[in-house]
Amino acid sequence: MTENIPFTPETSAKLDALRAIMRSAGSVLVAYSGGVDSALVMAVAHEQLGEDALACIGVSPSYPAREMRDAVKLAELLGVPYRLVNTEEYLDENYAANPNNRCYFCKSELHNRLKELLLAEEWGVVMDGANTSDLGDHRPGMTAARERDVRSPLIEAGIGKPEVRAIAQHLGLPVWDKPAMACLSSRVPHGTAITPELLRQIEAAEDVLVELGFPQFRVRHHNEIARIEVPAEEFPKAFQHHSEIVAGVKAAGYRFVTLDLAGFKSGGLNGATNGTIIPLMEVVRE
Fold it and tell me: What's the rounded Cα separation, in Å, for the pair 101 and 113?
C-alpha cells in the first residue's frame, strides 16, 4: 500500500474525538504491539498526555522478535515512554491446547499483567487498538479485554481500519501502511498444541521471508510441512528465490516447503483445505 488515503472532514472530526477521549482519561497504559492500530492509539495518547501515557509491549514466544524490535524503534522515534511486559500465556494449559478461542487466554494473560501494573503504579486506564472494523469478526481476545475494563478509544471515536490508516498517514506515522501481523500462534491449526519451541520454529521460517524482502506473508505449520502464503503478485519472486526459501525453511526444522496457490489471506488456516498447495522445490527447476 503506497497511495495516499483521503483525510476527510469526517475523519478529522473523529481524530478530534480521539484526542478528547485521551485527555479525559488522565493517564493511560497502551497495549502496544507495533501495528498501525495500537501505534495510532500510542501516538495520540502521547500527543495529548505526554509522560502520562506509557506504551506497554507484551513480550512472549508468540510475538516475533523482529516485531518487538520494530515496535521499540517506533516508540523511541516518537519519544514515547515504553515498557516491555513479559507474559507467560504458554504456561496456561487452556492456551497451550490451542482451542478456537485461544486468543481469549492469551489476551487474558496480557491484560492481567497490565491491570497489575495499572494498580501498582496508579495509572488511570488500559487502552488497546481495537477499531470498529474488528467488531464483526470472531475475536475472543476482545472479550478478555472487556472483562478487564480495557477501553478501545478507536471504537469509542467510531474509527475503522481505513480511517486508522488515513489518520496515521496524516500524523506522519511510518507504519500507516504496515500490513497486519497476527501472532505466531495463529499459524498453527486449532487443536495442535502450542509450545515455545514450535513458535520459535515458525519464527525462524518466517525470518527467511523477511530477509528476502517479502512485505506480507505467513508460514502455516502443518507438522512437517511449512505452507507459505504470499500475495499472488509475489509468486514470481518466490520462484526466483525458491532455493534460498527451501534451504532456510528446512533449516528451521521443516521437511517439506510448499507454496499455497490461493495466495496470502488473513486467517488462512480457517480455509486451509480450499487452497492448492505446491512444493516450492518441485515448481522451479534450475
Answer: 20
